[in-house]
Amino acid sequence: GNSVTQMEGPVTLSEEAFLTINCTYTATGYPSLFWYVQYPGEGLQLLLKATKADDKGSNKGFEATYRKETTSFHLEKGSVQVSDSAVYFCALSDLNQFYFGTGTSLTVIP
Amino acid sequence: KAGVTQTPRYLIKTRGQQVTLSCSPISGHRSVSWYQQTPGQGLQFLFEYFSETQRNKGNFPGRFSGRQFSNSRSEMNVSTLELGDSALYLCASSEPGGNTIYFGEGSWLTVV
User: What 8-state DSSP symbol labels residue B42?
Assistant: First the structure.
């Protein structure tokens, strides 16, 4: 079946540190992969996506590359800011159904 | 273009009551899905509607139901509320043939 496993949190980083949040997936077909972000008290917002192998999604300094050989879609940012503090969800979409990871809470301290 | 709109944003209900939550999708989107988010269980899929038909369903008891209207607006209903139903209920929509879902800000339900 389809599933997403992402890095357990919480993650605490200092401002300007490098961020990696690991995400691996299991899929029976050819899924699209996503990162969503949830700020406190809000719904989920699409951060970036990739629809096929070797695609790189990017937005607001965040990047993730669809790696079919390692079934991974790790989220990275070179220099985090306090405003990046949020919960990050990795997800896959296959045949009109979405599967979400458990979320990784990120806190960035000044 | 307006985003996904959910009403009400916050509500408090008593055990045993029922509740109806509403979702208006992005204009032109015909698929609406619902999720329950709790600290312990994370995001759990409830159901998905497309063109007024339920297309997918998660593993929730029959107390949880939904429907979609001809204008793509959707409602979900929870009957005989339990304390454990306290959660953030999120609605998401997608366009025909699209593979991306867009979320509303959610409805916070507290059952006391």
Answer: E
Please write the tens of the pLDDT for every residue from A76-106.
999 999 999 999 999 999 877 889 999 999 9
Residues of chain A above pLDDT 90, percent: 85
Residue A5, chain B, CB below 8 Å: the answer is no
Tens-place pLDDT, residues B59-71: 999 999 999 999 9
Quote the strand ranges of chain B, DSSP E.
5-7, 10-13, 19-24, 31-38, 42-50, 53-57, 64-68, 74-78, 87-94, 102-103, 107-111
CB contact under 8 A, A98 and B102: no
Q: Which of residues 37-76 of B touch A (CB under 8 A)?
A: 42-43, 45, 48, 50, 55-56
Token pair recorded at residue B109: 């339900």
Residue type, position B27, single letter: S
